[in-house]
Amino acid sequence: MIHALAYNNDPEMRGKFYYPHQVEERDDGIYVAVQESTAHTPTVSDLMVQTMVNWGVTHVFGMVGHSNLGLADALRLQEEAGRLSYVGIRHEGAAAFAASGYAKLTGTPAACLSIAGPGATNLLTGLWDARVDRAPVLALTGQVNTQVLGPGAFQEIDLASAFAPVARFSQTVLRDSRPVELMNLACKNAIVERDVAHLIFPDEVQTLPAAEGAEAGGPDGRLGDRRMLPSADSLAAALDRLKQAQRPVIIVGYGAVGRMESVIRLAEKLKAPVLTTFKAKGQIADDHPLAAGVLGRSGTPVASWCMNESDLLLVFGASFSNHTGISAKKPIIQVDFDPMTLGKFHPVALPVLGEIGLTAEWLWQTLPDATGSTDQRAELAERWQIWREEKSRRRARERGRGMNSAVLFHALSELVPADAVIAVDVGNNTYSFGRYFECRGQRVLMSGYLGSIGFGFPAAMGAWAATRVQAEYRGRRVISISGDGGFGQYMAEFTTAVRYGMNLIHVLLNNNELGKISKEQRAGHWPVWQTALSNPNFAAYAADCGGLGIRVESEAGFVEAMQRALACEGPALIEVIADVDLI
To answer: pTM of the prediction?
Structure first.
């Protein structure tokens, strides 16, 4: 049908037609050019994404695909409005790790986006990393049309079941759902529970028109102040035990991040050493007179000695898993905001339920100036001197087969800016980092309880995104460290870093081997089997991607490379040929 306007009021034009659009006559008919409407009808996805942004989610890492196009368009509109930043990745696993890294650094959620089926399942490893490390992350997954859901449509899997173990909150947005309320609840669960929340968007639901008069949601009136002191009895008991202790030691875990000011004041009043779990490395600078370094097999003999000589352990925000190295044989006051964490692995002398910062502040203010405890600072300085002399001897080891890790991390300790954010991977490179790198205020991110290889570089991408919007971290340098095995997991994401101009440095220890696994095979008296790696020239690869790539084999070469990388705008990769045994 051709739409036309008849000018019946004009006698000369009566019975004739005027076409307001270009008309073209073809063999198979008459074609009329019409202007496509540019008016956008708000959709369910629009309202939900606006709600997500109102809750403070400013970054989405993900991959656009055929089963999330309606949702992706809503993200596009928010990005064009300047309220959201989207980072398109090469693999959804990297998206989840980037969101986890962002959340671990800031304590606020980021989101990751995928299609149905394989895109969604690719998110799971990074989401498990976020969950076990208590990092708030929002997962947004497409899904096939509800009309074909069930019989086995293309790329259909039961996402509700697949995500049930990893997500604290997981719901499907249906035609008759209250979409804004679902997003409100997803964001609230992620933030309050410090966990993963998941929403499933069937394809056709994404573009449904929003209900007339519907408005986006947000956090106003939905969040309470969770900073609660412990009970009076718990505080009194903790105070009494601290007054009686002669050699108390404070141990901080990752749960104490952001609350260290009061913890350090308390330590200074008690003149007590402060030890950290590996996940909490850097929460007190190693040059502080009371810092004792990391406890456990990734740590220093300084921390172990302090714990062994103590008569009371005051533990803030640590889980007591086997990797922490916290002795169950000592009297323990455990302070945590999570009641399930208290005495989780074994009974403690005094479990204290309360917010860590407020509890430390109350103890610091209430303790008398003369606590009666031993001033342990001189002994601590002596132990640091012994350990640094040992590290110096280790740096002298040379076999001509690549750089010694003690040398590398000594140089990094001096070169990395004190306010940098460092994302580390897993393997021997990470153990060496824990032992040898001395923090001067840097924030450290890691895959703590999942211990997932490949975490380091994608997490650095998430941290870089945070440094662009979070005032506390704005402008800080971001550095990631991995082995060749770890970087190989997500090395395609270096092209993502180039595309978005990410100002980050990746330090890659290349020993052509899964060195930690080889070591474990030898320790278990197994043959070393299937741990060798065939690697490219990683520095040349970085340059081919459009970034800075430098390959080094000596301390002098590494120092020069780090100086170049620090002066570089955009992503840089330093490939260090490393000795697999000098770790």
So the answer is: 0.91
